Amino acid sequence: MNKSKAIRRICLNAIMLALFCIVGMFSIPLGDNIKVSLQLLIVFIICLTMESVIDCLIVTSLYLLLGLFLPFYAGFSFGVTPTFGYVISFVVISPIVFFLNKIPRIYPPVRMFIACFVGLLVCYTIGTLFMMLYLKWNLVTTLAVSVLPYIPFDIAKIVIAILVVLVLPTKFFKKDE
After folding, report:
1. DSSP-H helix ranges across the chain
2. pLDDT > 70 in the chain, percent
3. DSSP string, 50-91
4. Which pLDDT belongs to residue 174?
């Protein structure tokens, strides 16, 4: 890799991490204990646009680590909270979404939807298990509180991520030939 490609990759990673940290802090309250954040939207955009899985892992891992000490998580929170499992899942789903999005012969928007939907299922699984253990709740209660209210919003995030990726200029995200 030449120097200009390395600099471009580092800058793109830094921009994505900054976007993740800024957008990830905010959440929209929708009722009693229901707050919707855009963290997952940014994870999907990162995984659908970055040129390597290593870049996806770097950005999501740095977000996880920074949020342990600085208020970058939803609602300006930091550290280990009941929803920390969802933040952990961002690192886990990065390679899943990245590689599923590379499957050939599938119409790109459909491929992106499948990749993000599978990532969402893994995110729900990890986040729910962590919350169950952290709060000592049963599965039904945890699903009712941490998954069911968010399904429509998370599906909308997948659709928005796909639309954003489709309109982004690809020259900034693709490898130089």
Report:
1. 3-25, 39-49, 53-69, 84-100, 108-135, 139-146, 151-167
2. 93
3. -S-HHHHHHHHHHHHHHHHHSS-BGGGB-SS-TTHHHHHHHH
4. 57
Whether 73 contacts 24, CB under 8 Å: yes
Identify the CATH number of the domain in which residue 44 sits.
1.10.1760.20
1, pLDDT greater than 90:
no
The reply to whether 104 falls in a domain is yes
* In a domain? residue 26: yes
Would the pTM of this model clear 0.85, i.e. be above it?
yes
Q: How confident is the model at residue 176 (pLDDT cuts 50, 70, 90)?
A: very low
Tell me how many domains the chain contains: 1
Which residue from 64, 14, 15 is spatially nearest to 39, judged by alpha carbons?
64
177 assigned to some structural domain: no
Max CA pair span of the chain: 53
Residue 161 forms part of a structural domain: yes
The mean-pLDDT minimum among 5-9, 20-24, 93-97, 159-163 falls in: 5-9
Q: Please give the Cα distance from 109 to 176 (Å, whole number).
A: 23
DSSP reduced 3-state for 103 = coil
Question: Domain limits at 149?
Answer: 3-172
